[in-house]
């Protein structure tokens, strides 16, 4: 049974056709690379899966059941977590508070319910350690490097035990060492049965961790192939349009 099926998803923003009849299937535990030039529709597709946008038409099915995500919490409740391209962190909060944003731990003192910061910082610290990140839970996100911010955004997806993690350009703005860490994390997610969709412009990342690659060009899916049956040259040709479809 497929984890996720997108069936003829179309999305328009006024006169802009961001996606035209895109179908995509994700199996449990599979890592799929989603590639395409700027404006090809990658982030729009991720946001539709994550419940940020409703598609203009088309159907989404999770484990064969049609679903309609009206808001991000609906997708989260269905086992889907996302790391946004802009990371969507709150600069004025600590790393730990960002990890728990919207899912704060509380403690009861008699009739009073209070945020349990010690517990949140402790759990956030464990998640950063798992990610081999030196991010400290009590540091403000405003003062952090790109890689540390990435670790905060990824740690946030690990709070629940999602079936599918969507990552929109997780390695675009970070150091070589941190890229290796993020790729290692994706492999670990896969080993533990999680599916991953990796949006990336970086061919080596996709060929390193993905089982399959799908290519969008101007809102249309032009290829969807096992990674073993394609090459960086072919994928580049598909992205820029030198190869029509494969
Ligand atoms: N909220 C929005 N309102 C209007 N148009 C939008 C919106 N979001 C995306 N678009 C348009 O939809 C198209 C696809 O954009 P999208 O962000 O999905 O591309 P992308 O493949 O993620 O590109 P990049 O590699 O630059 O991140 C673009 O033409 C973009 O301008
Ligand atoms: Mg994008």
Structural summary, described in words:
It holds the Pfam family ABC_tran. The longest helix has 16 residues, at 176-191. The mean pLDDT is 92. The protein is an alpha/beta fold and 246 residues long. A hairpin with a 2-residue loop joins β7 (106-109) and β8 (112-115). The chain is globular and about 65 Å long. The strands form three sheets. A six-stranded mixed sheet has the order 6-9-10-3-11-12, with helices on both faces. The chain has helices at residues 42-49, 72-77, 95-99, 117-130, 146-157, 176-191, 203-209, 232-240, and strands at 4-13, 16-26, 31-35, 57-62, 65-67, 80-83, 106-109, 112-115, 164-168, 195-199, 212-217, 220-226. Magnesium ion (MG) is lined by residues 42-43, 85, 168.
Q: Strand order of the main beta sheet, please?
A: 6-9-10-3-11-12
Shape: globular
* CATH class bucket of the largest domain: Alpha Beta
The percent of residues in helical segments reads: 25-40%
Q: What is the tally of beta strands?
A: 12
Number of helical stretches of at least 4 residues = 8
């Amino acid at each position: 049974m497929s984890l996720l099926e997108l069936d003829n998803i179309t999305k328009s923003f006024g006169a802009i056709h961001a996606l035209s009849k895109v179908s995509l299937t994700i199996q449990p535990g599979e890592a799929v690379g989603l590639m395409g030039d700027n404006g090809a529709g990658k982030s729009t597709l991720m946001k539709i899966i994550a419940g940020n946008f409703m598609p203009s038409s088309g159907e989404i099915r999770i484990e064969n059941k049609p679903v309609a995500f009206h808001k991000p919490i609906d997708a989260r409740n269905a086992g889907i977590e996302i790391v946004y391209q802009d990371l969507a962190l709150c600069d004025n909060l600590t790393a730990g508070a960002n990890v728990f944003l919207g899912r704060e731990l509380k403690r009861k003192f008699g009739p009073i319910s209070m945020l349990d910061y010690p517990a949140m910082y402790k759990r956030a610290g464990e998640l950063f350690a798992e990610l081999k990140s030196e991010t400290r839970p009590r540091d403000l996100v405003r003062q952090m490097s790109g890689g540390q911010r990435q670790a905060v955004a990824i740690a946030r997806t690990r709070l629940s035990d999602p079936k599918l993690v969507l990552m929109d350009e997780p390695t675009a703005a970070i150091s070589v060492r941190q890229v290796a860490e993020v790729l290692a994390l994706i492999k670990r997610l896969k080993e533990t049965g999680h599916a991953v969709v990796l949006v990336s412009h970086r061919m080596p990342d996709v060929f390193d961790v993905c089982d399959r690659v799908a290519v969008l060009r101007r809102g249309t899916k032009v290829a969807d192939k096992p990674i073993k049956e394609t090459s960086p040259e072919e994928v580049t040709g598909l992205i820029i349009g030198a190869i029509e479809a494969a």
